[in-house]
Amino acid sequence: MASFFDTSIEYIKGVGPQKAQLLNKELNIFTYADLLQYYPFRYEDRTKFYKINELHGELSGVQIKGTIRQVETIGEGRKKRLVAHFQDETGQIELVWFKGIQWVLKKISLKTQYVVFGKPTEFNRKINIAHPELEVYVPAAEQRSFHQPVYNTTEKLKAKYIDSKAISKMMAELVRAALPQLQETLSPDILAQYKLMSKAESIRQIHFPQGEELLNRARFRLKFEEFFYVQLRLLKLKLTRTEKYKGQVLADTQLLNTFYKDHLPFELTGAQKRVIKEAYADMRSGKQMNRLVQGDVGSGKTMVAFICMLLSVSSGAQTCLMAPTEILAQQHYIGLKEYADMLGLKIALLTGSVRTKARREIHAGLESGALHILIGTHALLEDKVQFKNLGLAVVDEQHRFGVAQRAKLWTKNENYYPHVLVMTATPIPRTLAMTLYGDLDLSVIDELPAGRKPIQTVHRYEKDRLRVFGFIKEEIEKGRQVYIVYPLIEESATLDLKHVHDGYESITRHFPQYPVSIVHGDMKSEAKDFEMQRFIKGETKIMVATTVIEVGVNVPNASVMIIENAERFGLAQLHQLRGRVGRGAEQSYCILMTKYELSKDGKTRIGTMVRTNNGFEIADVDLHLRGPGDLMGTQQSGIADLLIADISKDGPILSLARDAATAVLEADPQLAKPENQAILRQVRSIKKHTVNWSRIS
Ligand code: ADP
Ligand code: MG
After folding, report:
1. Apex CA 361: angle with CA 356 and CA 367, to 5°?
2. Would you state the pLDDT for residue 298?
3. Which end of the chain is more exposed for a tag (fewer CB within 10 A), N or C?
4. What burial letters (b/e) apply to 427-462, b meaning 16+ CB within 10 Å?
5. Same structural domain for residues 279 and 311?
């Protein structure tokens, strides 16, 4: 049934098929519903008039009142422009048009009182306004709005005279017709509890606000609603999963006790213990675990994973750990084999470079159950890899894997879906985690092992290079190792290589006495491994690399991280890189080398890194700088579809909406109660209009 809201916008008065087609193409607006949800991106204060002698180039949008004294066209061809000399009682400015000159000329008459709106710019100490809005001044007739809505348009639309004002006109027509049709989309309970404005009123106020307070309430309501439906979907997924999917009961702790008593190399942190308890509660519950472990770099996620893996093996099931790179898988294998051997467990490594014969042995061991623990890269997702009984699958650095890859893990056990533990060092703010991973259970390791000295971070310039080299020497003489990292230059692979190679050359020239490793993206993986291993074993003292070493690598003896052109890195990446040092007991250092002139954002990034080691604080700054769109995984989460809510600013509203969604599902999981019919209807309507995302986030 086609509803009112599915009607094509061409039927709005004054639109018609041609304009409709343009709006389809340019703004993706097809239906009444689309247009109603095309919210203003800002509002202009149209109650205040500036005087011309008050204008300067720093003002954003100003409104002035006056007359046009003279009009002239200046220049030829592409430089041709129309200049109107505009004046009020305090002075005069130039209004300039480069396009639509004929149209403007027809509109303009001298001596008429006009209202001009636009952004003043200063040029040669003269003020002008390019492409201003120009209307005839009507004294009292028109109530000038305190909040005049401004809609985004495009050049193509403007060329057809569909500017913000024109959209506002269409909107007025549409809102008038739509108001009686607009049904409430939240339940009366929620409206009352959170003191929300009704849907219809919010739509009216967001487009045609009647004051600050009403506008704010409309915004709040619409943001709340957006978050509410994202959260409801995620929580519903989670509910379905925990209800539908039984989990293997893995409750035996014998191996774990032995490991604790005899082999655990250090005291676990309180946070590690807590997270292990949370995972254990899931694994023994009879329901399938889907848990995200979020822990800053160096917080000891590997040990948490290993202990959970022991729980699986102890109960007679197998376990696997998947890492995003071969280097990382290898390192996990070497580290965990030591413990596995102590406990008499069989462990193997499966990566793309494992030979056929060894691979066959691994396959056989997995199928018979003789092999308890498998460490690997995504090679372990291949269909040929069949377990006798996979109890727990761990995914390390999960942001490096796609949704489909994780979904594949689910198929590795025919009787029960395996329990899944995903680990991430990408510290994302809680609000974002709630949305990105809202259908997973979340555990946070918010504590670093005792005795770690916070990494000291400094900012240095090219002129300091000799001092930096001197420092490198001191540290190496003390027995430490050093990373020097160069940025990936996406525009140019050649330039990229040149940077690393130049760096490598200058380092070997300056430090002929030290063996140096080099690792970059253009090397074969065996060559990379070889170089990496030399550094891990301490044979080389300096590692010159691009960002390939970014994730996970653990060389506790490395104490200095030098990041070249640090201004070219994002905050999350800088933090990941810095996390490669500070893993041992020694004092570690991070040196951020940059050029002199930094952008405003660049300054904030470097300043933040120097100020704090806290990954969550850094993530917060990052979110504010970049917005959520750039962050990993936002595509599947529904964040990309948010129209008005902003995850980096509206965290508190998100929390409320999540509470509300939780309460609704707790009281009425099927949305069957009469008071929740509005919600059910909206859920169905959203489903109809959006892609059905995979059941795993
Ligand atoms: P990440 O969370 O970044 O994966 P790792 O698991 O690689 O961190 O651990 C970083 C280092 O800290 C390793 O060398 C590990 O052995 C050590 N470690 C982990 N937990 C503790 C602890 N409770 N006490 C001391 N050292 C620990
Ligand atoms: Mg790790």
Report:
1. 120
2. 83
3. N
4. bbbbbbbbbbbbbbbebbbbbbbeeeeebebebbee
5. yes
pTM: 0.71
Q: Which of 395, 583, 586 to mutate to test the pocket of ligand 1 (most atoms within 8 A of CB)?
A: 583
- Asked if residue 327 and residue 375 are part of one domain, the reply reads yes
Half-sphere exposure in the Cβ direction for 291 (13 Å, CA): 25
| DSSP secondary structure letter of residue 260 | I
Cβ–ligand 1 contact at 332 (below 6 Å)? no
Domain range enclosing 213: 188-244+650-686
Cα–Cα distance measured from residue 623 to residue 632, given in angstroms and rounded to the nearest whole number? 11
Decide: 269 in ligand 1 pocket, CB within 6 A. Answer: yes
- Token digits for 161? 């005279």
- Paired with 117 in beta bridges are 63, 133
User: Cα of 576 to ligand 1 centre, how many Å?
Assistant: 15
Which of 322, 316, 235 has the alpha carbon at shortest distance from 283? 316
Q: Are 632 and 497 in contact (CB under 8 A)?
A: no
Q: Name the CA dihedral angle for 27, 32, 36, 40, rounded to a multiple of 10 degrees.
A: 30
Ligand with the closest atom to the CA of 297: 1
Give the pair of three-digit tokens for residue 235: 């929580």
449 lines ligand 1 (CB under 6 A): yes
- CB burial class (10 A; 0-12, 13-18, 19+) of residue 640? exposed
Residue 559's CATH number: 3.40.50.300
User: What is the position in ligand 1's atom list of the atom closest to the CA of 267?
Assistant: 23
* Atom 12, ligand 1: residue with shortest CA distance: 300
Reported as a single tens digit per residue, the pLDDT across 638-657 is 555 688 988 778 888 998 99
Domain count, the chain: 5
pLDDT at 697 over 50: no
Residue 631 domain-assigned (yes or no): no
